[in-house]
Design goal:
With 464 residues, the protein is mostly helical. It has helices spanning 5-10, 14-20, 25-39, 44-51, 60-73, 75-94, 104-116, 123-127, 144-153, 157-169, 215-232, 256-269, 289-301, 306-312, 320-323, 334-338, 341-344, 348-385, 387-400, 405-419, 424-440; strands at 184-188, 194-201, 209-213.
Length: 464
């Protein structure tokens, strides 16, 4: 292992430090675009007056270096530049062109650049300029009827996979950039029907977590697997992308951009993407987030445990994550997800099939428990009134009267007379009456011993 001079020198490159501080590829893409847009707005005259030169190129790396140089020399000026930028963005918020909840996203890339280069900025003064965030969003979730329409117009099996997985998994759009076949673990019933599947989100990322998908989604995904085989000539390998694009003869991942285009096409077909009137910038349902909101709504209707629901959506759950010791590989949250499957299933016939299957399983569970209770009752009866218990009681009584020969003789006669009477069932019935009389301190009515009429050596210690 060696530390190279080149690697050390990279630490002097402001833009490289910015890149190194961002781990997620999609976040990096968005931050780069937003940062470049901001840096291009900074007047060149400011660089000339304070640094003595102007940007030779308009690329993001050159502009980042000059901006950091300016920040080191004139930190107050940089704060003023950012403040002016925020004020301009506020005008767009007031005009209804952007959401107040979106505005902080324009500031985050700037903060990342400055923080990664160890430039101290009084961010509180900047944050005070931001408009008040809206507590609720005006957009809504997809309805089940809209999802059913989407499935009707989706002629390609790929689109059906996207709709069912998106709605029953509750994950974000960028998750499609990660999915491989190894990220899906199917659960099956004894009859080989699908019980559902576990789905890994953001594999090998610090934000990795698990959620689940419905049996309906599993069936469609298996159909897609068969289509894959007919296209490629073999089933997908674990490391292959979950969805492949049809644009290439070889296997290429269908990424989040491709998925979004497919969803947009279907949404337009069912009338969910009409032309927006002047002044309105948002549709009633977000293309991708509408699925996530549907998932959240259905989980709440199913009364799924809140912490489990939040974890299945990849939300932060505060200190709970630090203290719990949940074994992800055991899929302990699957029973909670099972509560919501009928709510999350799109097709009515699939929902009815699942509910009937659940009822059958419940009946089988009840029957199994009844058998277990019957077996337990038999074992308890054996322990309380069986031949061994009666014999142990006889031995105990013999020791109690060992100094009284007459009592020993009568006890022995009674024991043999009792054990020769009738069937084992009748012996146990009479034995219980004897024990109950002893417990209550009463004399047993001897006439009750005549309830069994049989008297046979064949019944001696018989268990029949």
């Amino acid at each position: 292992m060696k530390i190279s001079i080149d690697e050390i020198n990279k630490r002097d490159n402001p833009y490289q430090l910015f890149l190194d501080s961002i781990k997620n590829d999609e976040t990096l893409r968005k931050y780069k675009n937003a940062l470049h847009a901001f840096l291009k707005l900074v007047p060149s005259l400011l660089y000339k007056d304070n640094l003595g030169n102007i940007p030779k190129k308009n690329d993001i790396e050159t502009l980042s270096e000059l901006f950091i140089e300016l920040a080191r020399k004139k930190p107050e000026l940089v704060v003023n530049i950012i403040a002016a930028f925020v004020k301009e963005k506020r005008k767009l918020v007031e005009a209804g062109k952007i959401s107040p909840n979106t505005l902080p996203n324009y500031i985050k890339p700037i903060k990342t650049l400055l923080d990664s280069n160890r430039i101290p900025v009084h961010w509180k003064s900047i944050n005070r300029l931001l408009p008040r965030r809206r507590s609720t969003s005006s957009d809504r979730a997809y309805t089940k009827q809209e999802l059913q329409k989407m499935m009707e117009v989706a002629k390609d099996i790929t689109d059906k996979v996207i709709i069912t997985m998106f709605s029953s998994g509750g994950f974000r759009l960028e998750s499609w950039d990660y999915f491989e076949w190894q990220d899906v673990i199917f659960f099956q019933n004894k009859d080989d029907s699908y019980k559902g599947a576990a789905l890994r989100i953001y594999r090998n990322d610090p934000e990795e977590y698990w959620t689940f998908i419905t049996p309906e989604a599993c069936k469609i995904l298996q159909l897609y697997k068969e289509r894959w085989k007919s296209d490629i000539g073999e089933y997908p390998k674990p490391h292959h992308p979950l969805l492949k694009t049809v644009r290439f003869p070889t296997i290429h991942k269908l990424n989040s951009k491709g998925v979004k285009k497919r969803v947009e096409k279907i949404a337009k077909q069912i009338g969910l993407r009409p032309t927006l009137p002047p002044g309105k910038r948002r549709h009633e349902v977000q293309l991708d987030h509408g699925f996530r909101k549907y998932f959240n709504t259905m989980m709440r209707r199913a009364k799924v445990n809140y912490l489990d629901k939040e974890d299945m959506m990849g939300h932060k759950v505060g200190l709970e994550r630090h203290y719990e010791r949940y074994q992800e590989a055991d899929f302990e949250r699957s029973p909670e997800y099972q509560k919501a499957i009928s709510f999350l299933t799109i097709y009515d016939e699939e929902r009815l099939r699942f509910e009937n299957q659940q009822k059958q399983q419940e009946i089988e569970e009840i029957e199994k428990k009844n058998l277990e209770l019957q077996d337990l009752a038999k074992r308890i009866d054996e322990l309380e009134s069986g031949p061994k218990t009666r014999w142990d009681e006889y031995i105990k009584n013999m020791f109690a009267v060992q100094d009284d020969p007459a009592a020993k003789i009568w006890l022995t006669i009674f024991q043999f007379w009792f054990e020769m009477r009738a069937t084992e069932e009748e012996k146990r019935l009479i034995w219980k009456k004897i024990q109950q009389a002893k417990k209550e301190g009463k004399l047993l009515d001897i006439s009750k011993l005549r309830e069994s009429k049989g008297l046979s050596l064949d019944n001696l210690y018989s268990e029949k």
